Amino acid sequence: MLTIITDPLFYALAIPAVISLGLSKGGFAGMGQIATPMLALIMPPLEAAAILLPIMLVQDANAVWVYRKDWSGRIVAIFVSGSLIGIGVAWWLASYISDAAVRIFIGGFTIAFVAYSIVGMMRVPREPGQPGIRDGVFWGALSGFTSTICQAGSPPYQMYALRLRLSKMTFVGTTAMTFALINVIKVVPYFALGNFTTKSLGTSLVLLPLAMVTNWLGFWLVKVTPQERFYRIMLVVMLVLSLELTREGVMELWAH
């Protein structure tokens, strides 16, 4: 029988986390980066990721349908192939790393992503690039790893895909198709590691209606709203959360 989390503090954090995830799956790639760090403030990171994954799978199905005509098969094939490596490595390491280490990893990785976004260390070239196999496999592997550990596969993907100068809708559609496949693959290690429980699945079900509403809101917003305004706000929130998450992880390791 399914049960649910009843802690009000959890929902105070889960609601904005799911909203950001819905907007991200609607087309604002990267906004969902905030979801796992937010929940990881009050629960084990992999447990938080397990609550979010079923929600993401349903949102992925919507996104794939909406953007079914706007995606690059070559990019998806290259990137997802690389992600298999990262997912496998994350599966192997998940049983050996502590919650504190995962918190530090999520915090540090998110801080790096914020810095990358602000400073623009890898500027988008003026001329469109070609989806190279070697680069795609490398960034795909990194994305598969971070996506499995903390649902943060978007930054490596963006570092690869933004350089290709895809059209707006092709970029959004390719992103949707790529992570739909990656998330389906992740179900296997999550089940094998025992991350799915009756409580996590029940909680996912409770949050699903909100996720669907914000998902469709994202589909609409991506067509009418400049993304930069949203990104600036999200970057500030992500930075604050990641600093706190890193601090918690360091203090937890220090205590041991």
From TrEMBL:
The chain crosses the membrane at residues 9-28, 34-55, 75-94, 100-119, 169-192, 204-222. It is found in: Cell membrane. GO terms for cellular component: plasma membrane. It is a multi-pass membrane protein. The keyword Transmembrane helix applies. Its main location: membrane. Keywords: Cell membrane, Membrane, Transmembrane, Transmembrane helix, Transport. It comes from the Bacteria. Belongs to the 4-toluene sulfonate uptake permease (TSUP) (TC 2.A.102) family. This is Probable membrane transporter protein. It comes from Undibacter mobilis.
